[in-house]
TrEMBL record:
Residues 14-126 form the Hemerythrin-like domain. InterPro entries: Hemerythrin-like (IPR012312). This is Hemerythrin-like domain-containing protein. The lineage of its organism: Bacteria, Bacillati, Actinomycetota, Actinomycetes, Micromonosporales. It comes from the Bacteria.
């Protein structure tokens, strides 16, 4: 995860980055379980979904909404939302009775790239693009002074 630009000092970015780390770790556990044909594949899959679904909702309802309103990063936000839809679509289509893990592994690769793009592209750009009033609207209440 990004540690060089200071964007994690913004409470929402810090929270989303921490969630990215947890999601990446869960995705790694799932990948290892799939490749080992481990019996824990479905629990590992569920653990990833439990982290991923609320995370993407937070991004889309908070940060992405403000970035769309600001306007300069709309194309990047649209691309990231399309990636959310793609990854969620693959994961949501898993047949739990007879899982085909190949598409899930490919989605995990896309998820890794997606997180990297947010951490090293969108998040630092958002810090520059958004006015303080936008950050005030989307800063988690628990993080407020």
């Amino acid at each position: 995860m990004c540690n060089y630009c200071g964007c994690r000092e913004f409470p929402l970015i810090g929270r989303l980055s921490d969630e990215h780390e947890a999601i990446s770790n869960a995705a790694g556990r799932l990948r290892r379980a799939i490749l080992a044909a481990d019996a824990d594949r479905l629990p590992a899959f569920d653990a990833l979904l439990e982290l991923l679904l609320p995370h993407t909702a937070t991004e889309e309802v908070g940060l992405f909404t403000e970035l769309r309103a600001e306007g300069s990063l709309t194309s990047a936000v649209d691309d990231l939302c399309a990636e959310h839809d793609d990854i969620h679509g693959v994961l949501g289509a898993l047949d739990r009775a007879a899982p085909d893990w190949a598409p899930v592994l490919a989605a995990l690769d896309r998820l890794h790239r997606h997180i990297d793009n947010e951490e090293h592209g969108l998040f630092p750009a958002a810090v520059i693009a958004l006015p303080i009033s936008a950050w005030d609207r989307i800063t988690p209440a628990a993080a407020s002074p």
